[in-house]
Design goal:
By secondary structure, the protein is of the alpha/beta class. It has two domains: 171 residues, Peroxisomal Thiolase, Chain A, domain 1 (3-Layer(aba) Sandwich); 148 residues, Thiolase/Chalcone synthase (Peroxisomal Thiolase, Chain A, domain 1), CATH 3.40.47. The protein has ten helices and 13 strands.
């Protein structure tokens, strides 16, 4: 019996309407547009400001965008996986909330937390579920409302992050295109460089944790930058080597949108021309688990069936990974 191959058959995305520009940030913290642009490549980011709206709202919007484009009946979806570090609540999981809101009444859902690598971890998990033969339609969502955990008095982090959601539909492939391979990694010793200290069971919320502003992102940029470049390079090289693929043969690199210098450092290392690198960090900033699916959403019309693609990411924890696949459809 032939093995089942999983393929991306649809893409959806959503970003909030409110723009937080570098000029806006100049009025909030000691920074400048030139400083931010030079060091990160970011010009603006989107912020979900409306009261009562959280990650599930953006995930629903992205999923509805996908369902409308593909014509898929939400009742046909078997599983919803939501990659996020900003769930609506610690529990219940945000995936089930999204499933109910979009009418995926026959699906079960669960959240997956691996920071900026979360979407690739969720994509690989969903792929294995398709390959098992037990499931036919798996919706994989990357969504984060980073503005809910950003300290807007900290100029080292508040310039980086934005809000957004992106998603893909995984189905069994009816041809040779689809998921090929993945390398995923982690190193818990890196957690001290990129984390949110309070809010979990180790440091539950108290007056003291709130006063000490420990419910916001903390990042030590220098070791994170170094580890990100190394982690994404190593995982990508391993995938290419064991699949006997040259970088020249790739049609697209889809890197996590953390920092333009990291993105182009990877491209230069692989000697990949910049026109093959998906970049939208200038408009959205770092949306954590949403950056890679938002790139696919932005570039979908440029993709052709059979395109060979590398997706790679690095996140807090540390976590990292690279996925290699061939694109399964032409966009009309």
């Amino acid at each position: 019996m032939a093995s089942i191959k999983a393929a991306i058959t649809g893409v959806g995305g959503y970003v909030p309407e409110t723009r937080l520009t570098n000029a806006d940030l100049e009025k909030m913290v000691d920074t400048t547009d030139e400083w931010i642009t030079t060091r990160t490549g970011i010009k603006e980011r989107r912020i979900l400001k409306e009261p009562g709206k959280a990650s599930s709202f953006m995930g629903v919007k992205a999923a509805e965008n996908l369902l409308e484009k593909t014509g898929v009946n939400p009742a046909e979806i078997d599983v919803v996986i939501c990659a996020t570090v900003t769930p609506d609540m610690t529990f219940p999981d945000t995936a089930n909330t999204i499933a109910t809101e979009i009418g995926a009444d026959n699906a079960f859902g669960f959240d997956l937390a691996a920071a900026c690598s979360g979407f690739l971890f969720a994509l690989t998990t969903g792929t294995r579920m398709i390959e098992s033969g037990a499931y036919k339609k798996v919706l994989v969502i990357g969504v984060d409302k980073m503005s809910s955990i950003v300290d807007y008095t900290d100029r080292t982090t508040c310039i980086l992050f934005g809000d957004g959601a992106g998603c893909v539909l995984l189905e069994p492939s009816d041809n040779e295109e689809g998921f090929v391979d993945a390398v995923l990694g982690g190193d818990g010793s890196g957690s001290k460089y990129l984390m949110m200290k309070a809010g979990g069971s180790l440091y539950p919320p108290t007056h003291e944790t709130v006063t000490n502003r420990e419910h916001f992102i903390y990042q030590d940029g220098r070791p994170v930058f170094k580890a990100a470049v190394q982690g994404m390079r190593d995982a990508t090289l391993k995938v290419l080597e064991r699949n006997k693929v040259d970088a020249d043969d790739l049609d697209w690199i889809v890197p996590h949108q953390a920092n333009r210098r990291i993105i182009y450092s990877l491209a230069d290392f692989l000697e990949i021309p910049k026109e093959k690198v998906m970049v939208n960090i200038d408009r959205y900033g770092n949306t954590t688990a949403a950056t890679i699916p938002l790139c696919l959403w932005d570039y979908e019309r440029k993709l052709k069936k059979g395109d060979r693609m590398i997706m790679t990411a690095f996140g807090g924890g540390f976590t990292w990974g690279t996925v290699y696949l061939t694109w399964a459809y032409d966009t009309e």
